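Question (not urgent): is this output format expected?
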Amino acid sequence: MAKHPAISPVLDEDNLAMALKALSRKHQSFAHAIRYAGPLPERSLPRGFATLAKIIVEQQLSLTAAQAIWDRLEADLGGVTPEAVLARDVPHLRALGLGARKAEYVQGIAVALADGDLDFAMLKDLPDEEAITSLTAIRGIGPWTAEVYMLFAEGRSDIFPAGDIALQSAARTVFDLPQRPDSKTFRVMAEDWRPWRGVAARIFWQVYRRQKETRNSANPFSKT
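Got this back:
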């Protein structure tokens, strides 16, 4: 069995270019997807509590709705910090637009930081799987949240949020599959894209966005 680096390469400009070439050579469908997607947008996010909280806020919401809630949080708290969140109770956070669970989760993460159960500074030195395990040990941080955080805040190039429906939908389009792959199937598919699974994810997200923007129901990757 092939061994993979415990800490995947940081996704800087040089590694991104290398990854795009490697994936293009790996599969013709990726080469087509990269051309279709166009330049990948910069998606780097700052490390820390605010980014993780915002990822949670954005779950299952449109970007417009999530941004409106986030703006209210920032205005009320004077900045989304653990200290500011702990100075409010859950009902107050709910009144700002957070759902009950999300309010509990965001406050719970602030408590975990205050208690030392979560340390963002240590994440950068942890292997990929250990970092995700450390994050998901905190209530409210599921695998998808942890993977998105590690991909965009830590810049890990081999993190793959296989449970993301947009990615699954785009993969169905790119590979002209009869149906969307489930998380388990998708993760198995993605093994062949190491150590650049994070770049594959970014390509899929961009393909998904482009199709939404063009409102094109036809599959540009169809072989028929």
